[in-house]
Amino acid sequence: MNLAASWYIAMQSKELSNKSQEIQLFGRSLVAWRDKVGQPVIMEDSLTYVTREDYGYIWVWYGPINPLFDLPQFDIIKSKKYNYIHNYFSFTAKTSVQTIIEIVLNHHHIIRLHNSSIIGQIEHTCLNEKDVELSKLPIPKEAWFGTITETRMKSYFGISEITNFLGLKIINITNRIDAWPSGFLSRIKINGQQEINLFSGVTPISENEIKWHVLIFMKKTNNLLLDPLYYLIFFWQTKASQLVDKSISNLISKYLNQSFIDTDQTVLKFRQFYENWVAKVNETR
Known about the structure:
The protein is α+β, with helices and mostly antiparallel strands. It contains 7 helices and 14 strands.
């Protein structure tokens, strides 16, 4: 498989028990279970994979025997969880890990996938180490790829009338993405306030099939009347995202057949970044 050296999601924590089960991962049939002290174990024949358990997932390292970097940091889920309305969704798609992250990094997906109405142009920048505070990155700088996108929007998911009524009018959107070879953290500011955080990882089932996992945390308003309605809209959005499962194959097909132009330079840079991490899989093995 053309996989980068990285951490991948094997399954949700609640799916793993002390009874062994067969799972499909990395195009292989593996066996997973919890040992006597509850630690996750994933094996292929005599090969035992390095595993971690965090954020409600079982993670497995793919690459050299010793992981080249630790799990990405998502502090909100540990220290600020109760300040946010949160939800989870996942879907499977006939595509690769690389392609699904490219689609996220390609800022045109805001229009194509989310049925958004844009005012003016989308401002998009590929970040480098000089643009960020390295100590605040969710991942070591060697495994980090960053972008920031700014735009003005009339509608998002077709619910602008409802959000306007509730005081959640979406006008200015800033989306900072911190990616690593197998996932990303997206921090979205609406009208200058940080409102939404998305933490995403991938299960590579086979060469061209993945399961995409997304944790979404939306900041509470602390308004007893507004927050329940806010949650309903938020839940509707995530349910709408699940419906992407039906249209994602068409999006992927269009994406793979498109001609790259100057505005897609970020994706081309990510491809080089990704291939560098593919090359690390067999290092010191």
